[in-house]
Amino acid sequence: MPLRPSNREQVWLLPPTLDELIPEDHPARFVAAFVDTLEQSFWSDMGIGLRGDTMGAPAYHPRALLSVWLYGFMIGTRSSRKLEAACRDQLSYLWLTGWQHPDHNTLWRFYQEHREAMKSLFKQTVLTAVKIGLVDLAVQAVDGTKIAGNAAKDRSYDAKRLQQLLERTEVAIANLEEQNEKGNDPPPAHLRQQLIHKQKLKDEVKAAMGQLAAEESSKNINLTDGDTKLMKGRQGIVPGYNLQAVVSPVKATEGTGHLIIAAEVVQDQNDMAQLAPMLKQSEETTGERPDIFIADAGYCSGSNLQAFAEIGQVIAMPISQQPGQKQPYHKDNFSYDMNTDSYICPCGQILRITGLKRKRNKRLYLASKAICEKCSAFGVCTKDRRQGRALEIGPHESVLQRHREWMETEEAKSVMRRRKELSEPVFGILKEQQAARKFLLRGLSNVKAEAKLLATAFNLRTLYRKWREDINYKGCTAIVDIIRTSFVTKTNLLAPSLLKY
């Protein structure tokens, strides 16, 4: 077959316009449209004036810089240096910036100064999706995933190793000071640099020792990022954070989709304490609670179930199986008599309350030793000849029992089957397509802001698919019309404005 001509010195008689560089349904166009429809109040909260200053050199437009960061987070380019390179040689970024080339210092200063205020964009993406009827609020699922921090594992120390490191550092400082004082010649420059480095390390170790002593629950601390905790994940144990997310399915004609309703970063290695806070954040974001909340067994506790029962929130959450739970004489098969505050065993024996175990916050119920010894179930139900069968009942035993019975229903089983199709794909996209296997910032407050921007970018990916469907369905090529009909007329969050890019 003939070959197409390839000429790298090709020139155009009529140069192409900037608008011809990318397709009409390109995600960069959606990002620009989304940023361009943000109200003036958003920019005021960020402390940015869109008109700029009359004095000084011209600055890059904040809409362009915000668009670059949002688009970068959507496709997995999250470092300022990589974004600088992209703004030089990738057409989508060149289109976003109007063929300008902000350097990494400019991009970083914008991100560093405004990332806290940018967290409000997350709620705007959720409310936009809710307003246009994209979100299915009937079911929400919460889950957590471990994400590595920007810290090396070999810089994690316990109190003993910190003390040893401090002693070695002090010896090294003394040796360097002795070398500096020897002879009349000025000491080599590298000795001074080593001394400064060791002194800085000494200060870091002392600060870490103080922080570790103040945090009674912590056994280790990382000298690179002191807020990270050793987390166990699929990649092993690494210093990192626990990312929590509440996910809701979306109503989309093009396949399936998800939206992150709530997102938070915590330092807890387990998820149990995050159930109620994540439901609260979800309610604050959308304005209502879901019909059914889904969680895995890592969130299950009697206190969590009691709290949800008090507010009338239905939750589908498996209870971890206890040893011998399926045996005929497990405590779940004992019936409770509220009038006499006693339990009746499967063989009809009464177990009366005899005391309270304060350390474990449990009530103790005992059967008659004489009757138990004569029972046909003796040796299976109990082997204790000293006191007979005993039951230890916690304060949330009744709510646990009711929940266990509900989880055996077909409705609960059907709901639980949806858990994996909600949370796990979201974490997969975050880690694989948005390059979120590791946080780039250090410190809990900074990581929280980074996680919110990741969730914002994830939601923008979902909103983009809906926007693209509208373009294809309506056969419309005017980007302004699509933005106005899809978003502006259905929510007051995105007001009409002229598109700059």
Structure characterization notes:
The chain is an alpha+beta fold. It has four domains: 162 residues, no CATH class; 113 residues, no CATH class; 61 residues; 65 residues, no CATH class. The strands form three sheets. Strands 1, 4, 5, 6, 7 and 8 form a six-stranded mixed beta sheet that branches. β4 and β5 form a beta hairpin. The radius of gyration is 30 Å and the shape is flat. The C terminus is likely disordered.
Radius of gyration: 30 Å
Which series of helices and strands comes N to C? HHHHHHHEEHHEEEEHEHEEEEEHEHHHHH
As a percent range, the share of strand residues is 5-15%
So how many helices? 17
Q: Tell how many strands the DSSP assignment holds.
A: 13
Number of domains: 4
pLDDT averaged residue by residue: 86
Low-pLDDT windows of residues: 476-480, 486-501
